Amino acid sequence: MNPDSNLIAVVGMAGRFPGAANLDEFWRNLSGGVESDTRFPARQSGGHTYTPGRGILDGADRFDAAFFGFTPREATMLDPQHRLLLECAWEALEDAGYDPARCPWPVGVYAGSSQSSYEHHVREHLTVDDWAVRLANSMDLLTARVAYKLGLTGPAVTVQTGCSTSLVAIHLAAQALLAGDCEAALAGGVSAVVPNALVPWSKGGPVSRDGHVRAFDEAGSGFVSGEGVGVVVLRRLDDALRDGDHVHAVIRGSAVNNDGAAKVGFTAPGVDGQTDVVRAAQAVAGVDANTVSYVEAHGTGTPLGDPIEVEALTNAFRGTTDARGFCRIGSVKTNIGHADTAAGVAGFIKTVLALRHRRIPPSLHFREPNRKIDFAASPFVVNTTLCDWTPSVGVRRAGISGMGIGGTNAHVVVEEAPTPAVTPTDRPWHLLTVSARSAGALDTAAARMARAVADRTDADLADVAWTLQHSRAGHPYRRFAVCASGADATALTVPGPSAGRTGTVAGDVVHLFADREPAHPPVAELYAHEPVFRTAVDECVHAAPAGLGVDLREAVLRREPAGTGPVVEACVTFVVQYALAVLWRRWGVEPVAVAGHGTGAYTAACVAGVLRHDEALPLVAQRARVRRDGDAGTARADLADLARRVPARRPALPWVSDLTGGWMDTRQAVDPVDHWVAHAGSAGSFDAALDTLLGWRALTLLAVGRGTTLTDSLAARPDALRRHTVLASLPAEHASTYAALLTTLGRLWAAGLEPHWCLYEGSGAAGCRCRRTPSNGAPTCRNPRPRRPPGARRPRGPRRPAPPTPAPPTPAPPTSTSSPPTSSTPRRATTLPPPRRTTVPPSRWPALPWRARTARRPPTPPGRSPTGRS
Questions:
Q1: DSSP letter (8 states) at residue 141
Q2: With contact defined as beta carbons under 8 Å apart, do 857 and 797 qualify?
Q3: Is 232 exposed, middle or buried (0-12, 13-18, 19+ CB in 10 A)?
Q4: Do 66 and 217 contact (CB within 8 A), yes or no?
Q5: What are phi and psi of 2, to 5 degrees?
Q6: Which helix (H) or strand (E) holds 761?
Q7: Is 301 within 8 Å of 1 (Cβ atoms)?
Q8: CA-based nearest residue to 187, from 222, 149, 146, 138
């Protein structure tokens, strides 16, 4: 048995924490030693002293209801913790490179939330159905709602073990993967209090008096209440490597237990239980303690909890090593406060980010060790500065602890990800696709993507393109960029021809084929990098008729075949059109009808299934001789002889004839001799053929070939542009033929066509790429709504006036390439204005308990019990 078959890969992450709207900001704060707690002046009221600090999650009351299919009223009733976890789960899957709608296997959800008074808040402000509000606020339904809204079919398990909840959720998700319950799993937790409330301090309690978390320090007096939400995406490591997932880190092993009765009280931590869980996790991981070079501790800063935790860690490590001072230790709570049910996942994500950056962030506020902790005799040293992570033994490896009130302990052993294999790319250009639910969100997503890929190498850029094409949901507003390097992605930030909206494509695609083109962009680049195109050209070359006098392949790849004569020029036109048509169909740009003029009529016949390429090329050459020689009898006789050798076939696609200007009927198609002989002697009626198409229905008219003869002709017809979309396969704006072709593919996608991305990627010379890379997905529009939505009743008793609600952003004006949807801007459901970090004025302080403000207001349960922490 492969000893690594039980390893779990972290393939996606997302989170929001105080002072950090995303994980990039979170790492910036951690590595910069930033304390993100909001500070409030110390205050007393109703006989209580309130701690002057709190880790407040910005925008906890904001939500994009429409994005997840909620009505404004439904979203307003929904516990903000449910909203936050749903958004974070979506973002984590996008980071992992998976679209929930396209996941071919079960995905599980394991998470938990904090106790909340939001249900009472809703009942106080709204006239609501009892059953509806209970469903919207039930902690038990937290993960089931995520599974329902994202369409996930694996287990949906809500975890509630107090402060260890989210780390226990990660353990359970890993076990489910190993048991085969699911093929991927979301794991994490959320804690947010809406409406906000200050936390009272009491002597001997777990809450910090000065509003700082001083983990392991003699001056530590407890924790600061915090908030946060974090979700990680887990897969079995073997599966992740096989499928090309980006692996952030590897879980080697984990364990969960309970202290039982071996402690001084129910809420107290226990040395034996914590010792055993660390030993068990290391045993499952198959590692010795001396290979663990960092521990992300529970680290609450309480005078009782910190000494017990370090004693338990020391006991566990002493089972395999007597070394001292080799392992650094820290606590994320010194940065963001104690995030309760999200504390474990916050520490987990911090550690994974440290592994990725190969640097250990500082643990803050450590000046003098707690006198009850003998660090000198322990394996540990508190990490007080940002330092390089250079292990003395083996790979970078860490332990993460989470301890819950009531004694449920969890410990997870993680290590750095294996170095991914670099897959070379053969494509000189790459198509980056970005979409969103609104014009404003598209601007944000495009700017994010441009920044993210600015410094990418060509190989990395290919992975980004692959991830965007295969693993992102296609939203209505779209923009693309054709890039040879990351710097080219700045085109994403400029609305223009690269922008569009689904539904703006006029209709189904029709392939149009012109007669010989006066301009000939080179196709050597396509021949070199697209095997499908190259194979089609080579097949035509092998079927070339005798007597051309030139190497047809060289004539096709030459920039200007002029001077080779009309016969060779006609054959070159056919070969390029035929190869492009094959490539377009390979990429999923299938026509619903075809039409061609002159030489292009033979290409149209091939696409319609009436001719094979080896039958068409001799006819093309002989038709060119007939036209060159002035309808000479011998040439016409030879053409008729060739046509007699072609079996009669019914068209597989509707085909508009340039001979009659109308639809090709079955009789004409199955009588090739009369049709092709008459076609060779006729100037054709392609304008009539275009009239037939333009009068049929709204279409996307795609000129398949090189040059813009057809598109220029159609652009001069107002009726064409009014009802139809007109595109050239190789627009003249690019010097590179390859970039020109991808530009047209991008325009088709931006207008709503969904290419066969797997076949598109597999058509490249290097075959199908399958390596996902983290990239920012489509943002939600999290704008606040009024405190009381329509239909709300006023609360009982006097009420402090609410601060003004920020005005919603003004929709972007229509442009020539992107227009806003016909419906109104999606409405957002919120409850209270977002809190601000840093010192805030009294008018913005979190609310005190109702009874401390007015005797007439009914008592409101506190947002979170201060004794509900360990």
A1: G
A2: yes
A3: buried
A4: no
A5: -65, 120
A6: helix 757-762
A7: no
A8: 146
